[in-house]
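Protocol step 6 of 9: fold each sequence in the batch and record its C-alpha cells directly after the sequence line. For illustration, a two-sequence batch is reproduced in full.

Sequence one:
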Amino acid sequence: MKNAFIILMLAGLMAQPEPVAYDWSGQYGYLVDRGGIVWNQDWSLGALILDGTFVHYPSRFGPTIATQLRPGNEEPVYRALDSTGVISRLINNRGDYFLDNLDISLEFASPKSRMEVVGYKRVYAGPYGQYVGPERGPLQQSYLVNYVGGLEKDTLLVTLGKFIGNSGLPDTGAGSGRLSDEIMAGGLTWIRRGNQSRLTTQVAPFFQRYRGNSSLAGGNFNYQLGQTVISQTWERDSVRWFSGLSWRWIRRGREISPGTLLTPEQWTVLGQIHRSKNIGLKLGASILDGTPALETRFRWKRSGDRVQQHIILDRELRPGIDFINHTSLAQTWTRFSYDISLIRKRAILRFGQHLLFVEGTVYRDAYQALFPNMLPGSWEQSGQVILNPFSWLSFDSQWKHYSLSSDLGPGYGDHFSESTETHVFLFQRKLDLNIHLRIDGFFNRNRTIQFNPVLAIPQRQTGIMFPVRDPLWITTIAVTARVSSVTITWSMNNAAMLFYGNSPDYTIRWYDGFQPLGRLSQFTIDWSFTN
C-alpha cells in the first residue's frame, strides 16, 4: 500500500489526454491524445454516445461531466453501491474576463441503486468580448441525469443529457460572429449476468443542431446531425462477441439551401472477439455506404510490482464529412502506442511512443480540396519522472516531442512541463494548505495547424498577421486551503504578466484567429457534503 498513491497518480495521468487550451474558458481548447489532435472521435458518457463531428471540446461541459467523458464507444463505467445517503458538491469559480462558472452535482445512493444529477453553467467574455454570445445568458449549460440500478444478476444504466452551447466566433474581429449548438442525447444499457457469462444490450440515440452566423470560414449555416446506436455484447470466460448497428445522418437546414445535401451515413460492426486479459484481438467487418472494410485491434498489457507495459495497435474506419462538397466520406485511422513505466518506491519513470496516420480525407486548407493520400504521420515521444520524496512534497517533470510535418499535431515541436506541489498542515492538521507551481514551455512553434471551430477540422493557417513567439512560457500558480469538506483555491494562469505588465512579449497567442490573452486570476470554492 505504500506505493498506492503513486500508482493512482500514474493511472490518472495515463488516462487523461493533454489539453491545449488557447482560450482560458476551455470553449475552443483542443485535446492532444497520443500524438494527434482529438477530432472526428465519439465520446461516451455513462450510457450516452456523443457523436464526435462537432463535439471536440469536452471541457466546456463542466468539471463533473468532463471527468466522466471517455474517448470512443467504450463500455459504461459505474461505481459499486456500498453506501446510503445523498452526496452533494458545489463548485463556484469566478475570475477575470467576467468568468463565472457554477457546477452542482447531487448523488443519491442506496444499496440497490444510485442516481446522479448534474447541472453546470458557464459565463465568460474573453479578451475584447470575442466569446460573448448573442444573449446575456450563459455560454454553456449542461444537464445530466445518470441512474444505475442493481449489481447482482441484472444491472440497468440510464443516462439523459442536454447540452446547450452559445458563444461568439473567434474568426470575426467585429464581434458579429455567433456559434451555437444544442444536444439532446439518451442511453440505456442492460447487463444480464450468468454463472460464467454476461449479456450487454445498449441503445443510444443522439441529436444535435449546430448553427453559425457571420463566420469568415463558413458564412451562415445550420446543420442537424443524428445518430442511433444499437449493440449487443456476449461474454463467456475470455471470449467476447459483439454485434451492433448504427444509423447516422446529417443535413443542412433551409438557411443555406432546401433539402438534404449530405448523404446518410451507415456504420455497422458485425463482430469481434477478445482472447485473454492481457492479449486482445478484434476482428470485424464494417460497412460505410455499402463499402466493406476490415477493422483490427491488438492490445497487450503486462503489469508487475515495478514495471508496467502497454501496447496498442488500432486500424479502424471512421466516417467523415466533406463540408465543401456536402458528401459523406471514409477515413482509415492507424494508431500505434507503446508505454512503459518503472515504479520504484516514491518515484515513477515513464516513456511513451505514439504514432498516428490518417488516410482518405483530411483538410490541408480550409478553402482547398481534400488531400486524398496518407498524411505524414503525427507522432509523439514522451518522458515523465514523478518524485514524491516526502508526504508533503512532490515533483512531476514531463517532456513531449511532436512531429512538425503533420497537419494533425498540436502545432509545436516540444512541450516541457515542470510541476511542484507542497502540502503544509496547520492547526493540528485540520487545515491542509497546498501550494502548486507549474511551468509549461512550448518550443519550435509554427503556423501549420489550427483547429477550425466552425468546420470542426484541423487545417493549415493561411494568413500571417502577427509574429509567433517561440518559445512560449506559461506559468501557473495555485494556492489551495482545505478545511473539512470546504476547499478554497486561488490560482493565476500566465503569472509572468505580474512582472512584465501588459508587454506583448508575454501575452499568449496560439494563432491569428484568437485575440491575445493576458493573465487569468480565478477564485474557486468547492463544497462537498453528505446528507
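Sequence two, same batch, same settings:
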Amino acid sequence: MDHCLRTLQRASAIIVLMLLALVPPAFANDSTFAVEPRVDNGVLNLQQWHIGRHPILNLNGMWRYSPGVKITPDNVDSITTTREIPDLWGVPQNDSERWVFSNMGHAGYALTINHLPERPLALHLNRICSSADIQLRDSNGQWRQLGQVGTPGNDDSDTVPHIRPVIINLPTDLRGESILVINVSNFHLRDGGICDRIELGTAAALKTSELQTVATTMMTLGILLGVGLYSLGLSIQNPIESSSKWLIAVCVTGAVFFISSESMLEVLFPDPSSTSFELHYKLRYLGLLFFAPALHRLCLGALKRRNESKLERYQRMVLWLFGVFILFFSAADFTLFAPVLAALFTYNMFRSILEAYRAWQYREPGSLWLLVGLMALGIAMLLQPLSYTLHNESRLAIQVAVVMFVFLQSQFIGLRFNNALNESRFLSEHLQEEISRKTRDLRQQQKELMSVRGELQAATFVDKTTGIYSRAYFENQLNIEWSRCLREQRPMALILFDMDGSKIVNRDFGRAAGDQWLFHFAHKLGDSVRRQSDIAARYGGDEFVLLLPDCDLTEATAMAEQFLAHIHNEALEIGGQSIGFSVTAGVQATIPNEDSTATEELINRVVVALHHAKEHKRGQVHTYRPIKTSSDEE
C-alpha cells in the first residue's frame, strides 16, 4: 500500500509540473507576442496583428448592440449602442435597459473589422445557449451567410438553442473593411445570450486550442473517475473511514459537471443535432448544485473533531429539493434560481477552505494537500471571469488549476486512507493475536471441560460397585434406541433380572462378600451380551436389566433362559465357602410407538412380570401377560 501511494504521488507531481509548464505563457507580457488588437466601440483594427506569431485573437470587447431586434442590411449602419461581450442575457447594464430584458427575444451584435489579412481565417464560438445567425458584409457591401448556430426562430416552439462550440470558416477573398454580424434568438434561458468567448484565427490553431481544452477536460474527468474508484475500493476495504463516501460524491458530481461541459459535448455527441439542450443543462446544474456541498462534506470528513450544524442539515434539504426540481422541470424554469446556486456554491467553498485550514492546524493527515488544492480551485474560480479579457492561453491556467486541485485532493485522500489502513492493519494484527490467544485458552478450557465431563459421565454412567453401566445410562440409551426402532419400526425387548437371596448373602457373609457376589454376576451378564447395541446395566440394588434393540419377545425369552441356565451352574468361592446364584427374570417386548408414556409402560410391564415370577416361582423366566387370576398367570 505504501509503495502504491508513493508511486501515485510521484506520478501526480510529474503531471502537475508538466501542466504548470504551460501556465507562464498565459501571463507573459506583450513583448513575447505581437500587440493584440482590442475591440473598441464596435471596431477592430487588425493592422498591427501578426498572425504568424499570434494565430488566435479574442474578439471580446465593446460590440455594437441592438436589443430586441435583429440586425439587417437596413439598420446595421444606424446602430450606435455598444455592449461588452461576453454578456449574459437578461442582465441589464443600467436601469434604462431593464425593460428590454423583461421578456426573452432577439438581439443583434455587430463588429466592424478593418485590414483582414490575406490568409484563410475562421471564427470560433464557444458554448452558446441560444441560437444565432452569423453573417458578414464585405467591403463591396455584399452580405454573406457564414453559418448558423442552432435553429433561430420567432418563439420557443421553433427555436433550438446550441450548446456546443463551433468553428465557422470565413471567406478567403475578404479585403479592406468588413462587418461581422451575429443575430441571437433566445426563448429558452434568461442567462443565455451571446457566447462568452468569440475568437478569430487560423482554423488549425482554433482546432488545436479546442483539442487542448478537450484533452485537459478528459484528463480531469479521468482523474475524477480514477480517484472515485480508488476511494470506493478503499471505503469497501475500510468502511470505518468516513471521508471516503464524501470523496466519491465529489468525484461523481465533478464528473457530471465536466461531462456536461461544451468541450466534452463534441466528444459525446459528434452529431450536433443529437445534443440535448435540456440534458446538458440538467447535468450542468446538478453538478454545480452538489459539487461544492460534497466538497464541504469531504473537508468535514477530514476532521476528527467535527459536528454537523443545523444550517448544514437545512442545506441538505434544500439541495435535494432543488435536485428534484431540476430533474422534473425545464431549464427555463430552474435557471431562475441561479443566484441561489451561486450563493450555495460560494458558502460551501468558503466553509471548505475554513475546514481544510482547521484540519491543517490540527495536523490531520493529508490536510495540507487538501488546503493547497482548495486554494488552486479558488484561483481557478477567480481566473474564470478574468479569462474574458486575458490572453487566449489563460484558459490553460484555469484548466491547470482545476487539475491541480483534483491531483492534490487525491494526495489528501491517499494519505488519509494510507494512515487509516495502517491503523486498521495494526488493529487487525493486534486483534488477530488477541483472538489467537483467546482461541488457545478456549481450546485448553474445552479440553479440560471435556476431561471433567468425561469423568462426570463415567461417574454417572458407570456403577461403582459392579463396574457395568448405571441406571442413568440405561435410561438415556433406552430413549435413543426407542427413537431408532420407532423410525425403523423394529421391535425392542427388556429383560429384568433379580438376584434371589441377596439379603441372606449380606447377612451371612458380610457386605464385602455381597458386593463381590454382585460384581461377579454383573460381569457374567455383561459377557452374555452378543451385539454392540445390547446393553447390560444395574437397575438398582440386586436388580439388573438387559436392553435388546431389534429383538422380539421369543428371542429375548430364549436369551434369558439360556443365561439363567448358565448362571445357576456358577458358584463364587469366598472365605473357603461356595456361594451359588439363584436369579429370576421378567421379559417384555414391543414395537415402539409415539406415545410419550410408552417407554414407562414397557418398564412397568417388565417389573410386573418379574414380581409375578418372584411371587409364584423363582429362578425362572416369566413374560408379561395381562392375566388377573393366579392360576391363569401360572
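Proceed to step 7 once all outputs are recorded. Observation for sequence two: The longest strand covers residues 106-114.
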